[in-house]
């Protein structure tokens, strides 16, 4: 089994190896997305453009170490081959997440000797570059311990070093630390109890918060919000900094929900607690945010009748539409990301461009007229009624009761779901918070992110189990994370690679 590092995992790994964030992945090609996530093992290829960027990055990592020999090579005061061999053995285990084989060490000693003809530092530099461009560095490789599990004859356990890697990239999106590597060296990552104890320690580290933030960001598409732009003629109050502020609010809100809410999933859709700077607080009509700059965010309580939960937050509502709301795109987000339903694509002969805004009617009126086309009706019947229920919020997410002087009713429905009818974003959030379909979708999305693959039919029992945890706990994030390391697909691997 092989799983290539993502850009985030690469940067985190390098940071934890060299002690500083070099942010080298920004030069890598665009992310390969599958179902909205960038870590699907089957889409993470290694094209030529990435190979070029990876080689350049490996040289920068190597230069960081060779320029700080006293920090990374304790024996550098005696700069000889014995010292290099010692460094190769220790750093090699950290970089490849396992002990190096004897022949691997000898090959790297030979690489060192080539560079050492110039200087000791150059020899170390070539070693580090060779390690960090290698396939075992870029890929999380697994071969297993080769022993069938008595109760599961088609399965075997990962080695303790492979389990250390599974644990660290799940909890931190990064490489194992010395504690994990030490436990692996003692072969103490074999039993479920050992694995759960190790994972519990990892969850107390701030890097676990980064990994969960990465999941929330990709699941809820939070990073997209910062780039939102609006028509300045139609929305003169919109400031260029508002998108970034709305995105930061969602990031801080989801962080609070994940780690400080006993019922995280439910509160995601119902809580009025949030964070704002002065501009965003004024936008919401909230008090308590006194920060003078765009980056000063403080805790605020929003109007529970208009702003409770994710669906009523400006970052979600402003995500689509330059000069008007987009009920279809708002609905598509909800269907895809939060109900795990893929609406059918529009027919190839149908115009797929927004209907121009008008000062004489409402967005809902224009959408109904458009969807009266029989070729459009099937798809729009699943989308339009969802978006109509959010029309009390305009394209920048400001609350409204009228559009062009005409009343906005905010009545919506989600067909083919257990949500049904709702009025407005707040009621939609309340129904989502207890929706079995929404719980199951979050379970699917967490599974995809945690394991870097979509749940197949035979693995759907694990999604069902995660969904049951959401239902029982209200979606407590730490409990969901702890459940992930008790599932068969985490504890074992097929004897025949899948």
List keywords for this structure.
two-stranded antiparallel ribbon; 3-stranded antiparallel sheet; 498 residues; 23 helices; mainly alpha; single chain; elongated; 3 domains
- Total domain units: 3
Strand content: 5-15%
For the largest beta-sheet, the strand count, sense and barrel status come to:
3 strands, antiparallel
Sheet with the most strands: spatial strand order: 3-4-11
Shape: elongated
Number of helical runs?
A: 23
Helical residue percent band: 40-55%
Query: Poorly predicted ranges (pLDDT <50, ≥5 residues)?
Result: none
Structural class: mainly alpha
The rounded Rg comes to 26 Å
Q: Overall mean pLDDT score?
A: 94
Write down how many β-strands occur, each being a DSSP E stretch of 2 or more residues: 11
Distance between the termini: 7 Å
List the helices and strands and how they pair.
Elements: E1 2-4, H1 7-18, H2 48-66, H3 69-72, H4 81-96, H5 102-116, H6 120-132, H7 135-138, E2 139-141, E3 148-149, E4 152-156, H8 160-171, H9 178-185, H10 192-203, H11 206-220, H12 242-260, H13 264-270, E5 273-276, H14 278-284, E6 298-301, H15 314-317, H16 327-338, H17 363-371, H18 374-388, E7 402-403, E8 406-407, E9 411-414, E10 420-423, H19 424-432, H20 436-451, H21 460-473, H22 477-484, H23 488-491, E11 493-494
Antiparallel strand pairs: 1-2, 3-4, 4-11, 5-6, 7-8, 9-10
Helix pairs in contact: 2-6, 4-5, 4-6, 5-6, 8-9, 8-10, 11-12, 12-13, 13-19, 16-18, 17-18, 20-21, 21-22
């Amino acid at each position: 089994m092989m799983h290539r590092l993502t850009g985030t995992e690469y940067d985190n790994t390098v940071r934890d190896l060299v002690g500083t964030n070099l942010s080298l992945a920004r030069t890598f090609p665009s992310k390969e997305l599958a179902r909205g996530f960038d870590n699907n093992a089957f889409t993470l290829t290694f094209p030529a453009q990435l190979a070029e960027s990876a080689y350049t990055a490996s040289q920068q990592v190597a230069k960081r170490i060779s320029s700080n020999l006293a920090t990374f090579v304790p024996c550098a005061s005696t700069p000889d081959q014995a010292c290099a061999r010692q460094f190769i053995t220790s750093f090699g285990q950290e970089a490849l997440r396992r002990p190096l084989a004897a022949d691997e060490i000898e090959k790297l000693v030979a690489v060192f000797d080539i560079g050492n003809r110039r200087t000791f530092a150059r020899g170390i530099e070539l070693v580090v570059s060779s390690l960090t461009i290698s396939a075992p560095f870029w890929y999380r490789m697994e071969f297993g311990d080769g022993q069938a599990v008595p109760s599961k004859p088609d399965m075997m356990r990962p080695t303790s070093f492979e389990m250390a890697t599974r644990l660290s990239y799940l909890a931190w999106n990064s490489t194992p630390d010395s504690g994990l590597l030490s436990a692996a060296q003692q072969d103490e990552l074999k039993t479920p109890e050992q694995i759960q104890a190790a994972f519990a320690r990892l969850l107390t580290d701030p890097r676990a918060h980064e990994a969960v933030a990465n999941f929330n960001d990709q699941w809820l598409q939070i990073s997209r919000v910062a780039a939102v732009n609006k028509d300045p003629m139609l929305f003169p109050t919109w400031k260029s900094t508002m998108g970034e502020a709305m995105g930061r609010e969602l990031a801080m809100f989801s962080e609070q929900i994940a780690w400080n809410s006993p019922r995280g999933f439910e509160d995601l859709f119902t809580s009025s607690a949030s964070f704002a700077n002065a501009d965003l607080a004024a936008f919401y009509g909230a008090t308590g945010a006194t920060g003078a700059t765009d980056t000063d965010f403080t805790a605020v309580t929003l109007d529970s009748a208009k702003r409770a939960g994710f669906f009523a937050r400006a970052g979600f509502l402003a995500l689509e539409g330059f000069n008007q709301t987009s009920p279809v795109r708002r609905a598509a987000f909800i269907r895809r990301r939060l109900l795990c339903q893929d609406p059918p694509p529009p027919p190839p002969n149908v115009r797929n461009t927004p209907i121009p805004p008008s000062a004489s009617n409402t967005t809902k009126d224009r959408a109904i007229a458009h969807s009266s086309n029989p070729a459009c009706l099937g798809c729009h019947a699943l989308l339009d009624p969802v978006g109509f229920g959010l029309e009390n919020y305009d394209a920048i997410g400001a609350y409204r009761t009228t559009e062009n002087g005409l009343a906005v009713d905010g009545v919506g429905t989600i067909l083919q779901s257990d949500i049904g009818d709702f009025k407005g974003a707040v009621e939609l959030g309340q129904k989502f918070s207890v929706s079995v379909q929404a719980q199951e979708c979050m379970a699917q999305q967490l599974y995809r992110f945690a394991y870097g693959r979509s749940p197949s039919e035979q693995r759907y029992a694990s999604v069902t189990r995660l969904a049951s945890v959401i239902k029982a706990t209200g979606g407590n994030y730490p409990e969901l994370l702890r459940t992930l390391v008790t599932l068969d697909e985490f504890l074992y691997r097929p004897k025949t690679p899948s």
